[in-house]
Amino acid sequence: MTTAVPATHREVRLAARPQGPLRTGHFRIAEVPVPEAVPGEVLVRNQLMSVAAVMDTLVRGDTNLPMPPYEPGEVLAGPAIGVVVAAPGTDLKPGDLITHNGGWREYALIDAADAQRIDPEALPDAAAYLSQGLTAWLGIVRGAEVRAGDTVFVTAAAGGVGSLAGQFARLRGATRVIGSTSFRRKGQYLVEELGYDAVVTRDAGPIEDQLREAAPTGIDAVFDNVGGEQLLAALAVARRGARVALVGTLSGQMSGNLSAPVEIDTGALILRGINLRGMSGSDHLDAVPEWFREFSRGLHDGTLTFPRTRLPGIDQAPRALCELIEGRHVGAVLVEL
Hints:
Elements (H helix, E strand, L loop, with lengths): L7 E7 L12 E7 L7 E11 L2 H7 L19 E7 L10 E4 L6 E5 L4 E2 L15 H11 L7 E4 L7 H10 L4 E6 L2 H11 L3 E4 L5 H8 L4 E6 L3 H10 E9 L3 H4 L12 H7 L2 E4 L9 H14 L6 E5 L4 H9 L6 E5 L1
Helix pairs in contact: 2-3, 2-9, 5-6
C-alpha cells in the first residue's frame, strides 16, 4: 500500500544568528511544498531526528568544523531516521528504513548515496541508530584505552556521549567510574540509573576539590568532552601514565566557540608520562563494525542502555536544541517528526 504524500510539509529554518544565548526565536517553522524525487534521489518521510551541542556552533556560523555552518533563511540539517517514500533508479524501495542527514524537516529529499539502509532488528530500538555511541566507544577504547581495574573520569557524563561512555568504561573492566555534570539532580540519575560510582557537579564547588575526594588515589583514564576547568582538574588528579581522550570542547561551545584553550604544564605531563590524545571519528572509520557489534550486543543483553529524551513534533525541535544547550536533559535528545 502506498501512503499518500501531502502537498506541503514543515521544516525548521534559521531566522537569525544569535549574539547571545540561543533562543527559540532564532528559528522559524516554514511550510513548503513536498519535493519530488528524480532518478538517483530518495524522498523520505522523517520519523525521528536528533539534536546535538555542535549545532549551536553551526547556528553561530563561526566554526572550523569539517561541516558547513547553518545559513540564515535556510533549512537546518542533522541526523534523522525515516521511511523511504520514493527512490526511483536506486536499490532502495518504499518502506525501507534509512538514516541520513536531512533532519529538521518532515520530508527530506536526499541523494541515494547519502542514505544508509538500516536493519530495524539489529538494535532493540531503531532510535539507537541516532546515538553518539561511536564517539563514546572510540574515546573509551582507543583514546583513553580503558583497562580492567582503572579509575575513569568522564566529563559531561549526562549528555548523549557521556551517558554511553561511562557504560563502555564499565564494560571494559573499570572498577570505579566518576562523572561530571551540571546539576546534582542529573548526578543522582548517573549514580542511580547508569551505575556511576561518584559524580562531581558544577554547582558544588571547585571541580578539582570534588574530584580529589571522589578519586583519592588518582585517575587512570579520562574521557574529556568539556575542556577548561574540568580538563585541568582531571590532569591535576591523574596518576602517572594516565591516558586522556580529548573528545569535545563543550566549555567553549557553550559560549559559541569551538576553541577551549587551557594553560597546561607540559613539563609535569612529561615527567608523569601522561598521554593526551585528540579523537576524531573520521580517523577511525575502521572501528565502526566492532563498535556496532558491541553496542548491539550490549543493548540486547541489557548490559548497555541508551538514555534519551524524546520531544513530540517538529515545532518542538528549536526548543529541544535550546534546552540541550541549557543542560536540561539527560542522554540523547530526539524529536519525533
